[in-house]
């Protein structure tokens, strides 16, 4: 795990914040080099699947010209939802480092089950709550702004 990549993920989350999107940012890294970075764009694109994780996976696969992201690591500012976890697993990302879990026990159980090794795909190594303060700060600011609008 590398805090420098979390810094970049939080810069992406800030971009989402400024676009009035839920501030989640993501970065995909391979061999210590950034392949792609992205942020939520659901509101801007008016599409429910435009999560930061989906966006960053699309960018990384285009860059590598391969849907298999073997050996890649994903840094994200909030635990992935089940849709994103499935995309991460299908793309064969090796590790996911999350700044904060979303406190939903069912989400946590589903994510762990998705990331578990199955007959087709390897296990996704998953670590969460790695930068709780930064993630709560930007999320709380966003939702406070939403309530005051």
Overall description:
With 149 residues, the chain is of the alpha/beta class. It has helices spanning 3-18, 42-45, 52-64, 82-90, 105-115, 132-148; strands at residues 25-30, 33-39, 72-76, 95-98, 125-127. Strands 2-1-3-4-5 form a 5-stranded mixed β-sheet. Helix 5 (105-115) links the parallel strand 4 and strand 5. The radius of gyration is 14 Å and the shape is globular. The model has no long low-confidence stretch (mean pLDDT 94).
Distance from first to last alpha carbon: 37 Å
- Low-pLDDT parts are none
The best one-word shape is globular
Largest sheet: 5 strands, mixed
Structural class: alpha/beta
Cα-based radius of gyration, to the nearest Å: 14 Å
- What is the percent of helical residues? 40-55%
- The number of helices is 6
Name the helix and strand elements from N-terminus to C-terminus, one letter apiece.
HEEHHEHEHEH
Question: What does the average pLDDT come to?
Answer: 94
DSSP strand content: 15-25%
Counted beta strands: 5
In the sheet with the most strands, the strands line up as: 2-1-3-4-5
């Amino acid at each position: 795990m590398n805090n420098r990549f979390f810094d970049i993920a939080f810069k992406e989350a800030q971009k989402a914040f400024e676009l009035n999107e839920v501030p989640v940012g993501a970065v995909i890294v391979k061999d210590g080099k950034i392949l792609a970075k992205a942020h939520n764009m659901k509101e801007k694109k008016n599409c429910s699947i435009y999560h930061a994780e989906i966006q960053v996976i699309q960018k990384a696969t285009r860059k590598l010209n391969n849907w298999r992201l073997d050996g890649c690591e994903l840094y994200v500012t909030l635990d992935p939802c089940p849709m994103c976890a499935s995309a991460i697993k299908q793309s064969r990302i090796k590790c996911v480092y999350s700044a904060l879990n979303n406190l939903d026990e069912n989400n946590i159980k589903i994510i762990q089950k998705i990331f578990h090794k199955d007959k087709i795909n390897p296990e996704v190594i998953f670590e969460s709550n790695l930068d709780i303060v930064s993630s709560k700060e930007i999320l709380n600011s966003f939702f406070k702004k939403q309530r005051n609008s």
